[in-house]
Structures are given as structure tokens and as C-alpha cells.
């Protein structure tokens, strides 16, 4: 099994490590447009060798698109076009790991090789990026979503299921529309609020130089997502615009509830809001 990993950053690099270490892939062929990242990926051992995008797609049984969604949505039709050149009997598979799905799936909905594409999203990550961020064990016990599996060839879906099983992930099936709504709530809004909090504190820090000296673990854990890479998050927030805006509006309403209660010295209302929020413990332990 030859696996091409396009984009050897946190997710792609971590997948490359585990797929080779756990004997799913015999060879990892890396693709990265950044020459510094490509050199680092080889030196670190994320890939056995590097290749051009087209060469990797031609050679490999599976191509994993682990690049920002704006780039992935352009690459995907090209990969399927290359599969089409091999004829209907082509059994190669292309998959992506992006956190927005509707536009990806829509871009190849009528493609004759659509069955060779499996849309997936491993729900794992950190705030760090680049080959140096790749780590073993990143996916252990995490959920992975496969979207619109009925549009993919059953054999391709089975191979991708086996791939995620090798990563020790549990697979959930979902349609793309529901996926994008859910990720707006559980992932995308978390990043937006972290970015906003970081900007708020940086504004204040201009006048109060000791503010970061006083920052505790609570602040660090809340704002750590603000370190996330803009190249990845700009296209995510753009492609999932409507869902993200809806969640932001709801978040602003809840912030207004807290503001009004605090402004009115309404301690009973503040307590009520906090205790209602405490119910999240039933979901997240």
C-alpha cells in the first residue's frame, strides 16, 4: 500500500507517522509546496520520500488531502480527473481531512469518478502547525466523521474505515450539511472566540504591561486556540460562513445575558446563567 500525504503539517504529518508505524502503509510519499516544510518532513521522517503532486497521485493507492480546505477543494477535481484517465476500473482512492464538507462534496458531485472519493474529518488537532507539530498518538480514541458515504464506492469506504481503524479512531457517519453545522458549534466558534479574546487582551496589554504576568492556566487554556494558523482558518470560516454566523449570533446573545446581569448587580441571574452552563459537565467530563 502506497499512501500519498499532500500537506505534511499537524494532521497530515501525524497520519503519516501512524500509518507507517502501524503497518497500514508500506510507503509514505509526501507532497508539500513549501520547500522548507518538505525538507523538514523528510528529515523528521514523516515521509519516505517527496514527490510532485501529480507523480504522487499517479503512483499511490490512496491520496490524502491534508491541506487547507481552500486548496483541497481545488485539488480534489484534479485528482479525480487523473483517476478518470486510468479508466473506470481505477481503484485508487482520494480522501480529504478538512473540517468543512459541503463545498468539497458539491465540487465533485457529478464527477464520473466520484465513487473514488471518501469525504472524512478526523476530529483531532492542536493549535500548532507545520511538520514539527506532527505527533504519534494524536488520533487515539478520537472520533472521525465520514460524510455522504453512500456517494462513495463501498470498497473505497471500507479501505478508509480500515485506515481510521489503524489510527485507533471510531468512525461516525453523517451527511455533509449536518457535519458543517455541528463543527460550527463544537470547533469553529471555539476558535473565533479564542481569536476575539486574544485581540481583547492584546488591546488591553498596550496599557497594562503586567497582564500576561498574571495570566493563569485558565487564561492559557481558553486562549490557546488563538495560536492557530490563519492559512487554515480563513477558508474554514469563509466556506462555513452561514453556520458560523448563526453560532456567533447565539454566542453574542449569551454574552449580552451575562453583561446585563452583571451590569444590574443581579447575582441571582448570574448564578442562574453559570449553573445552566455547568450542565455541560454532562457532555464533557
What can be said about this structure in brief?
The protein has 285 residues and is of the alpha/beta class.
Explain what the structure shows.
The protein has 285 residues and is α/β, with parallel strands linked by helices. The protein folds into two domains: 2-174, NAD(P)-binding Rossmann-like Domain (Rossmann fold, 3-Layer(aba) Sandwich), CATH 3.40.50; 179-282, 6-phosphogluconate dehydrogenase C-terminal fold, CATH 1.10.3660. It contains eleven helices and eight strands. It has helices at residues 10-21, 35-44, 53-59, 69-85, 102-107, 154-166, 176-205, 217-223, 230-239, 241-263, 267-277; strands at residues 2-6, 27-31, 49-50, 62-65, 93-96, 117-122, 143-147, 170-174. An eight-stranded mixed beta sheet has the order 3-2-1-4-5-6-7-8, with helices on both faces. α7 crosses α10 and α10 (241-263) runs antiparallel to α11. The protein is globular and about 70 Å long. The two termini are 39 Å apart. The mean pLDDT is 92.
Amino acid at each position: 500500500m502506497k499512501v500519498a500525504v499532500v500537506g505534511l503539517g499537524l494532521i497530515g504529518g501525524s497520519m503519516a507517522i501512524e500509518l507507517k508505524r502501524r503497518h497500514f502503509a508500506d510507503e509514505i510519499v509526501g507532497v508539500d509546496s513549501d520547500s522548507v516544510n518538505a525538507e523538514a518532513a523528510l528529515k523528521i521522517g514523516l515521509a519516505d520520500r517527496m514527490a510532485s503532486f501529480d507523480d504522487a497521485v499517479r503512483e499511490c493507492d490512496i491520496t490524502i488531502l491534508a491541506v487547507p480546505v481552500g486548496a483541497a477543494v481545488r485539488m480534489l477535481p484534479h485528482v479525480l480527473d487523473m483517476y478518470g484517465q486510468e479508466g473506470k476500473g481505477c481503484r485508487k482512492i482520494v480522501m480529504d481531512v478538512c473540517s468543512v464538507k459541503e463545498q468539497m462534496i458539491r465540487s465533485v458531485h457529478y464527477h464520473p469518478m466520484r465513487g473514488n472519493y471518501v469525504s472524512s474529518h478526523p476530529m483531532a488537532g492542536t493549535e500548532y502547525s507545520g511538520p514539527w507539530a506532527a505527533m504519534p498518538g494524536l488520533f487515539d480514541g478520537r472520533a472521525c466523521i465520514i460524510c455522504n458515504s453512500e456517494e462513495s464506492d463501498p470498497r473505497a469506504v471500507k479501505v478508509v474505515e480500515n485506515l481510521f481503524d489503524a489510527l485507533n479512531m471510531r468512525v461516525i457517519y453523517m451527511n455533509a450539511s449536518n457535519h458543517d453545522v455541528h463543527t460550527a458549534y463544537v470547533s469553529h466558534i471555539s476558535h473565533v472566540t479564542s481569536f476575539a479574546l486574544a485581540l481583547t487582551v492584546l488591546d488591553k496589554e498596550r496599557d497594562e504591561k503586567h497582564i500576561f504576568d498574571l495570566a493563569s492556566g485558565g487564561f492559557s487554556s481558553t486562549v490557546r486556540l488563538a495560536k492557530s494558523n490563519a492559512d487554515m482558518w480563513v477558508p474554514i470560516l469563509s466556506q462555513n460562513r452561514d453556520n458560523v454566523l448563526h453560532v456567533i449570533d447565539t454566542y453574542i446573545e449569551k454574552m449580552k445575558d451575562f453583561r446585563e446581569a452583571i451590569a444590574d448587580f443581579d447575582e441571582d441571574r448570574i448564578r442562574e446563567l453559570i449553573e445552566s452552563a455547568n450542565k455541560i459537565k454532562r457532555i464533557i467530563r
